[in-house]
Amino acid sequence: MFGDLFEEDYSSVSNYQYGKEKKLKTKALEPPAPREFTNLSGIRNQGGTCYLNSLLQTLHFTPEFREALFSLGPEELGSFEDKDKPDAKVRIIPLQLQRLFAQLLLLDQDAASTEDLTDSFGWTSNEEMRQHDVQELNRILFSALETSLVGTSGHDLINRLYHGTVVNQVVCKECKNVSEKQEDFLDLTVAVKNVSGLEDALWTMYVEEEVFDCDNLYHCGTCDRLVKATKSAKLRKLPPFLTVSLLRFNFDFVKHERYKETSCYTFPVRINLKPFCEQSDSDDLEYVYDLFSVIIHKGGCYGGHYHVYIKDVDHLGNWQFQAEKSKPDVNLKDLQNEEEIDDDPLVILKAILLQEENNVIPVDQLGQKLLKKIGTSWNKKYRKQCGPLRKFLQLHSQIFLLSSDESTVSLLKNGSLQAESDFQRNDQHISKTLTSESPGLNDRPSCSHWFDINDSKVQPIKEKDIERQFQGKESAYMLFYRKSQLQRPPEARANPRYGIPRHLLNEMDAANIELQTKRAEWDSTNNNLELRLHLGPHYHFFNGALHPIVSQAESVWDLTFDKRKTLGDLRQSMFQLLEFWEGDMVLSVAKFVPAGLHVYQMLDGDDLTLCELEIADGEDLFVWNGVEVGGIPIPTGSDCEPLLLHVLHLATSSEGERCPRLVESPHVFPSNAEVGAVLTALAVPVGVLFISATDPAGEENWVAIPEEDLKKTFREQGLRNQSSVLVQDSSDDNSSLLTQGRWFTGMNEMSWLQVQNLCEFESEEKQVKISATVNTVIFSDALTSCFLFVAENSCLRPIDRNGKLLCPVPDSYTVKEAELKMGSSLGLCPGKAPTSSQLFLFFTVGSDVQPGTEMEIIVEETMSVRDVSNFTFSGVGRGDTWHLRKMDWCYEAGEPLCEEDATLRELMICSGDTLLLIEGKLPPPGFLKVPVWWYQPRWHTGHWKSHPDQMHGAPSPGGVWRAASTQGAPGDPHGEVSLLYLGDLEISEDATVAELKSQAMTLSSSERVVPSPAFLRAWTVEGRRPGRLLRVNRQGSFTHHAPPCLPRTSHSVFRCSPQDVVLRTQMRLPGQRAYAPCVDLVWDTGRGWTAGSLRQRVAHFCSLPVEKIEIAKYFPEKFEWLPISSWNQHLTKRKKKKKQDNLQGAPYYLKDGDTIGIKNMLVEDDDDFSTARDDLGKETQKQLALGKKRYSLHVQNSDLFSSTKTSGRPRAPEASLSIHVGSFR
After folding, report:
1. Same domain for 467 and 596?
2. DSSP string of 689-757?
3. pLDDT higher for 936 or 515?
4. For 173, how many CA atoms within 13 A lie in the half-sphere containing its CB?
5. In this predicted model, what pLDDT tens digit does every residue of 135-144 receive, in sequence order?
6. CA triplet 770, 773, 777: central angle to 5 degrees?
7. Half-sphere exposure of 1019 (CA within 13 A, CB side)
8. Which of the ends of the chain has fewer CB neighbours closer than 10 A, N or C?
9. What is the pLDDT of residue 1048?
């Protein structure tokens, strides 16, 4: 069934490969095609209705059912005109079936539509796309018809034609009492598993007896005890039409899955059911049934396709026409020897050529027609013994004549006459044979006409073809038999109008007239060709192609011409239009290529029509003298088609030297030129050419062309338009050239975008890849071509690597304008994208932004901050004691939006920005609200209040915020960093550090007595630790993002100059893996940031000889110490002289607040600076990293396992089938 799921008829569009000035021409909607040679109509598939089509065709080719339905008139069923009236009882399903059967019989179209019928069933588009079981449909449709026909003369239609009875009997072996139970059936369900065929299954069901004995005795009501007995079943009443359903689908209780039984299961064309019925005196002919329909299922138990083999009882179709016209190859010799025809390719090829006009055909089309005739390709059937097709034609030159370029083949005159006489002789024999067989055709199954009806396609078949449906994935699923005694009236034979009521005859006649009118109009409209005439005098030839001298508009004439007229008529019209033309006029087919206009072939044969010349709509024709343009000979043909190549090479300076810069220049070469012409064009005497190629891994690399291949042509080398060629001179640097070349060629590639359907449309794909270039308009050009249905209120949103949906892409944006990278993922989401005057913003409450907690709003960019604040406040239920901040690039709360009357555009708020809703009123203009923290080692204790936000951290009891890793004294619990919140200060933006300290003194409690601000230093808080030192002589050095912390010192703090660096030094405790509390050290870097200068300052600070100390910087995030030695010197490659190290650079990156460990080598002689706490921290980090790795492997294995288990096509949930019928009781 899925084979035709999405087949739709689209209006054809004429498209141009090149030439942006050409317009697309959409043809008018083509009316339905007339019936084909079989003169039978198929039924169009609505997407998943092949099971319905097969059953409807079976009912249609059941004449007794069809005519009984036609016998019900409008007085019983009602009419379509009254169906919308509330009190009218219109039996819509029988009416729609009548109309459908009338269309199948009389309407001249290749396929009818069931849309009106399925609408009467109450089905939606989803139902029409969903697969169902035809056996289930058979029962449900009959039930719906019985309900619809209640109270009419056809109330017993189903019962009269399809109803039968089975009697089950149990015979007591003691008293011979017979207990029986009768059951009704509309179809017989027979087993397929472990059964050879239909007769074998019926024998098991209705002949063999089941014996009750031993432990399985039967309780006889007459004997009133358990006795031996036999149980059997018989057919008591047989219907005129017997339906047999084959149980091909079973359940495997070991694998716990369904499967299809594909073993061989035979069934006869004629069957005698008397052995399976109760004994009676009826004539044996009463039990004889003929097969007239076989519904076939192709596929598995979770999906597939249905079609039907049907016997044409009334001879409505043209089966004989197929035997004569469509398969002449089978009858080219004697019909008694038809099996030998397929083995004689000479006769078949001659017959195909005889049917062609002038007995000429392209060789490629000859192979295609051979495949269509015999159902097998030349290579598969004849190549082994006869060789290739062209070679076979050459070997039989006495019969076939190949053109000079071997593109076409024709029959020689003597071969044509001989083949034609053979064909006529065989044709007369066919007619005689069919005529002799026709009198007994209706009575003998062997002479019956069978058709394969596959949705819209109808093909005649032979009766022996039914045997191919005995087994396999494509096999019989339902069988329909009719009593052989049922005789059709002579007037019904080959008469499709028989039995159809007058009102339907009139309706079909009017519909046929309308169809003929539409086809005539369409034929007239579509016989005109739009030709584009390029006038030779208006063109000149340069750079390998033709180009207009002035403009394209002045060089091209548009002409509308009837394609049924000849080339001579077109040439005559051109002479009349171009009065100035002198000399010969040659018309040639031309095409636009990237290099310009190229002439391919000259049109010859003035007596041939444009249709016979295969001139397409919108064709470009070049009008010239056939020799030259502007005095220059013009190369023509596909062999010399100009190729536009992108040649990459190193640039040349004005002095003629090579520059380390790769440039690209377009060059045009004929396709039949040698590849080495590229070197000649660039004046490179010796060099290597590289072409771009893709390796098995999908990576694009440059591949060198061997020197011997430089003699090959561009076409032989596989180069096409827009291909890139890299030229390397013998003096070029290989590595840099290839690196630049590879980067450059990736600029114009077409790649793809991945779109996930997040709108949850059941009928759509969940995820697709769409091809795109940088100029593709994503929403209109690419998206609508991949999804059948795009919601009106939907938009595309990029998805970042964390799965977050970003700002929607405007509908009119290209890939380049949307700044999307190829390979990006996008989500098709509900909701419209913002317009050019709107902004798409995220906002959240609080500064601790968690993934997935952001909310989304679309606002006008002219809205003020106050309006946006009110909008967001009302949305989250907050009061006016909150304010808005913009999230900065490091995902932290940025500066507050203080200017409430300013618009979002003035504040440079862009789509995709995140606004944070922060508690607290904004300070007055010119002031900052700064949280102040107290820094002290752990040995100090005290109670402090906690800050409401706590700077994203979790404070310890008492308002203490302890860092995750120690910095004051790593490895020593007594030296751990603690930041205690003091409170918020409203301070002027221009305030100095001294003023900050003075105001911070007012926040200190009595437990934190500080003599004066001179005993405080101010640091910024960065990463939950003291960061940058705030110099006393600076203003405005603190913000909300970097609030100050105030460590107390034991002495008055002197002013720090810009060259001073404050470091925290810790002395190593002798004999222990621990350190003393930290002490601040001020180091003057005026003499340089060298290790020697720092070591001297530390030695002087500790009163130790400089050669008796070792120092190291601590990296708390790694739990590592890096020793600082005065011998850290390195040599530069070029100047070859020593350069003193700078501790500001790698690997130390020394700055204010860093921790320096000091070892006294007078009492210790080892180089180890680490502590036990460092070992514990490293082990913890190692375990965390190992855990992440294991988790990643677990996720990958889980995905692999789940994908292995669920490989294959996802199965849609099964849904019950139903037909909605009104009440007519």
Report:
1. no
2. EEEEEE-TTS-EEEEEPPGGGGGSBTTTTT--TT-EEEEEETTS-HHHHHHHHHHHHGGG--EEEEEEE
3. 515
4. 13
5. 899 999 999 9
6. 75
7. 27
8. C
9. 53
Q: What is the C-alpha to C-alpha distance for residues 53 and 117, in angstroms, rounded to an integer? A: 11
Looking at the structure of the chain, the number of domains it has is: 7
What percent helix, strand, coil does the chain show, rounded to 5?
30, 30, 45
Its pTM stands at 0.45
Torsion angle of alpha carbons 576, 581, 584, 586, nearest 10°?
-70
SS3 state of residue 386: helix
Q: Which residue has 């039984």 as its token pair? A: 261
- Asked if residue 687 is part of any domain, the answer here is yes
Contact between 727 and 687 under an 8 Å Cβ cutoff? The reply is yes
What is the per-residue pLDDT for 964? Answer: 36
Question: H or E element: which one contains 431?
Answer: helix 413-437
Where b means 16+ CB within 10 Å and e means fewer, 823-859 reads ebbbbbbeeebbeeebbbbbbbbebebeeeebeeebb
Per-residue H/E/C for 547-603 = EECCCHHHHEEEEEEECCCEHHHHHHHHHHHCCCCCCCCEEEEEEEECCEEEEEEEC
- C-beta separation of 720 from 693 below 8 A: no
**CA 670 – CA 692 distance, rounded (Å):** 20
22 part of a folded domain: no
**Cβ 889 vs Cβ 858: under 8 Å:** no
Q: Residue with structure tokens 């601590």?
A: 1114
Is 1214 part of a structural domain of the chain?
no
Parent domain of 1028: 931-938+977-1127+1142-1177
Can you tell me the distance from the alpha carbon of 953 to that of 974, in angstroms, rounded to the nearest whole number?
A: 21
Q: Which two tokens stand for residue 735?
A: 């590595």
Residues 1076, 1001 share a domain: yes
The residues that are catalytic are 50, 305
Residue-level pLDDT at 1197: 53
Q: How confident is the model over 952-983, as pLDDT tens digits?
A: 343 433 344 444 333 333 444 334 456 777 77
| CB of 926 closer than 8 Å to CB of 989 | yes
SS3 820: coil
pLDDT at 1137 over 90: no
> Which of these, 1154, 892, 894, lies nearest to 1027 by C-alpha position?
1154
The b/e string for 60-75 (b: 16+ C-beta within 10 A; e otherwise) is bbbbbbbebbbebeee
